[in-house]
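Customer ticket, subject: "Can you confirm the structure for Copper transport protein?"

Message body: Hello, I'm evaluating your service for our small team and ran a test protein. I'd like someone to confirm that this is what the system normally returns, since I don't have a reference to compare against.
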Amino acid sequence: MMHMTFYWSKKVTLLIDDWRTDSWTSYLLTLFACVLTSAFYQYLEDRRLRLKLISGNSTPATEIQTPLLLSKLGGDRTKLGVKFAGAVLFGVNSAIGYLLMLAVMSFNGGVFVAIVVGLAIGYLAFRSGDDDVSVVVDNPCDCA
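Agent reply: Thanks for trying us out. I re-ran your input and got the following:
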């Protein structure tokens, strides 16, 4: 039976049928995994934003951008590699964000609190000291 309202119980099924908790030990380990995963989400978001900032500063603002006409083969390969790395980080981060959202949709109060606490810890550890507020976040996930 799937809950449609928040409930507080040590019995929860998270993401897949095989991930069920029935004891306090397994429940606490699940909550710890939720905290770690959500903090890791913030870490990856920080890495992605820093990569975007670094790649954005390497191009002069006065240079005309012609993505289909490659003028400098070596420099464009590096830019392509940075864009590819950014795309991979974005994809992994989006997948983790959606998995966290689905975990919250288990409607277990402990899982919800663990994910919010993990996001707050991750933000405090990895993103709160950002002086680079000029980067626009283009993350479609609400949990960023």
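A couple of notes from the result: The chain has three helices and two strands. Residues 12-59+71-127 form one domain. Feel free to reply with more questions.
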